[in-house]
Write a structure and sequence with these properties.
Elements lengths: L6 H5 L10 E4 L7 E7 L2 E7 L8 H22 L8 E2 L8 E2 L5 E6 L4 E2 L6 H18 L17 H13 L7 H13 L5 H7 L5 E4 L8 E3 L7 E2 L6 E4 H12 L17 H14 L6 H4 L2 H22 L11 H18 L1 H11 L2
Antiparallel strand pairs: 1-2, 2-3, 3-6, 4-6, 5-6, 7-9, 8-11, 9-10
Helix pairs in contact: 3-7, 3-8, 4-10, 5-11, 7-10, 8-12, 10-11
C-alpha cells in the first residue's frame, strides 16, 4: 500500500489490464513511493509524488516531460545515446492521475538497464562520469526559463543553515558525543557555506539545467556498456553544474555507501575520484573553464556538508522530510556525511590535483 490508496487502483489509470497486473515496490528512494507494474503489455514505472516534499507536483511532472523530450531530441541530433525514461500517459492522454486522496501519480517507461546502489569496478565509475557529462551537454541549450522550480532553495546551503538555526532554537539538545560531533562540523565548515553562491553572484559559475540529485542509484548502466543514462528527474531545474558534480563525486566515490553501522569506514576514494573526473572531462572537455574547474573541490566538500545539515535538521525536526526506518536514522545519516566532509577536507590538495590532471 501507498498511503490510503492501493497502487493497483492508480495503475488502472494508465493501463487497461491493471486488474491482472503485478505491482511491486521498486527502488530505494527516500522521498516518493515507486512501483513496477508488470502487465500483458509490458512493464512500466508508477510513482506517487510526495506532496509534503513537492508541494506543487505538477512542476515535477512538467519538468520531467520537458527535460526528457529535450534529451531525446538532442541525442538524435548528435548521434549520442543516453538512456532516459519517457512519460507514459493515462488512458485519457494526461501526464498524471490524481487519486481520491488528492495525491498525484505519474508513470514512466521502464528502462531495461541496471540501476545500482554501489559502483562495481573501476570501469563503471568512469561510465558514471561520462553519463553525467552527456546529460550536461545534451541539456545545456535548454532554456532554463522554461523549467519550473520544483524545490525553491534546493542546494542553497546558506538557506539550509538558516533553517537549521531556526529548528535548533526550538529543540532542546540533550548533548552527547554524536550531537557534539555534528555541531563541531557545523561550526568548522559553516563559514565556507556561501562559496559557490558567491562565485555565482560574481559571474564565475553559470546557471544551466542540472539533474539536481545525481547520486549513484540514479544512474542506469546498460549491459553492453555504452547506452548508459540517468533516472529520477524530480529535482531537475536551473542550477550550477557544480551541484551535480559535487553530489555525484560524494556519492560515487564513497565506497562505504550511504548507509551502514560504521561511519568510520566512510571516505572519498581518490582512485574513484580520478576515474570519474577522467570520464566526465573526456565527454565534456570544454564544458567548464579553468576558473570554474577550480571550484570542484568546494563543490564536493559543500554538497556533502549540505546533505549532512539537511539530515541533522530533519532529525531535530522529527523526521518530517526524509523517510526513516527508525528515529535515529537521519542522525546516523548526518554523521556519515559529516565524516565524509572531514575526509574530503583532509584530501583537499590531492582532489585539486586530480581535477587539474583529469581536465587537461
Amino acid at each position: 500500500m501507498a498511503g490510503a490508496v492501493d497502487p493497483r487502483d492508480a495503475a488502472a489509470a494508465f493501463c487497461r489490464d491493471a486488474g491482472t497486473c503485478r505491482v511491486e515496490p521498486l527502488g530505494y528512494g527516500n522521498i516518493n513511493d515507486t512501483f513496477a507494474v508488470h502487465g500483458a503489455a509490458g512493464t512500466f514505472v508508477l510513482q506517487k509524488i510526495n506532496g509534503r516534499v513537492f508541494p506543487e507536483p505538477l512542476k515535477v511532472i512538467h519538468n520531467f516531460q520537458k527535460i526528457t523530450s529535450h534529451l531525446l531530441g538532442r541525442q538524435q541530433e548528435h548521434g549520442r545515446i543516453f538512456q532516459t525514461a519517457q512519460s507514459v500517459r493515462t488512458l485519457h492522454g494526461e501526464l498524471f492521475h490524481r487519486d481520491p486522496e488528492g495525491d498525484y501519480w505519474r508513470a514512466q517507461t521502464y528502462l531495461a538497464g541496471t540501476p545500482c546502489r554501489a559502483l562495481s569496478g573501476t570501469e563503471q565509475v568512469a561510465r558514471a562520469g561520462r553519463a553525467l557529462a552527456l546529460f550536461h551537454l545534451l541539456s545545456a541549450d535548454l532554456d532554463v526559463a522554461g523549467l519550473e522550480d520544483p524545490l525553491p532553495g534546493f542546494h542553497n546551503l546558506p538557506g539550509y543553515m538558516e533553517e537549521f538555526e531556526r529548528v535548533l532554537t526550538h529543540h532542546r539538545l540533550v548533548m552527547d558525543e554524536e550531537y557534539d560531533y555534528c555541531l563541531a562540523v557545523l561550526d568548522r565548515v559553516g563559514p565556507q557555506m556561501s562559496v559557490l553562491e558567491d562565485a555565482k553572484q560574481a559571474g564565475i559559475l553559470a546557471i544551466q539545467p542540472i539533474h539536481g540529485d545525481p547520486k549513484i542509484d540514479n544512474f542506469i548502466f546498460s549491459g553492453g556498456g555504452e547506452a548508459d543514462g540517468m533516472l529520477d528527474f524530480d529535482t531537475v531545474g536551473a542550477g550550477l553544474i557544480h551541484y551535480d558534480l559535487g553530489d555525484c563525486l560524494r556519492s560515487c566515490c564513497n565506497r562505504a555507501g550511504e548507509k551502514g553501522p560504521d561511519p568510520s569506514a566512510v571516505s572519498l576514494d581518490l582512485e574513484y575520484c580520478r576515474l570519474f573526473l577522467q570520464g566526465y572531462f573526456s565527454s565534456a572537455p570544454h564544458l567548464l573553464r579553468e576558473a570554474q574547474r577550480d571550484f570542484i573541490y568546494e563543490a564536493v566538500l559543500l554538497i556533502a556538508f549540505e546533505l549532512g545539515v539537511r539530515f541533522f535538521t530533519d532529525h531535530l525536526r522529527g523526521n518530517t522530510y526524509f523517510k526513516v526506518a527508525h528515529d535515529r536514522e537521519n542522525l546516523l545519516r548526518a554523521i556519515r556525511q559529516f565524516r565524509l566532509v572531514d575526509d574530503i577536507a583532509g584530501k583537499e590538495k590531492k582532489i585539486r590535483l586530480l581535477v587539474s590532471e583529469s581536465s587537461r
